[in-house]
Amino acid sequence: MTDYNLMKDFTFDERDEFTRKPIAEKIIKLLDSAIDVSPLIIDGKWGTGKTEFCFKLKNLIEADNTNDYKVGYVNAFQADHANEPLLTLIAEVASFYDEKDDKRKNFIKNAVPYLRLISGIGLKAGLGFAFGRYAADIPDALADGMEEIKDGSKSLIDQSLESMIKDQAEAEKNLSTLRDALSDIAYTNPIILLIDELDRCRPDFAVAMLETIKHVFDVENVQIILVTNADQLKATIKHSYGNETDSNSYLYKFFKYQINLPTTSKGAENQAIDNNDTYFRKVVQDSKVIPHTLKDNQFIYEIPKFLDLGELSLRNIEQVVRCIETLIVFEDKDKSKSPIAEEIFMVFLSFVYMMDKELLNQIVTRHINSTKFSNFTNSSRLDISHPHSRSDILNDLSVKHLFLFVFDGYFINSFLDLPSSTIERQTMQRHIKISLGKYDYVSDIHNDEYIKQVINNLLLFDIIK
Question: CB neighbours (10 Å) of residue 218?
Answer without folding.
Answer: 15
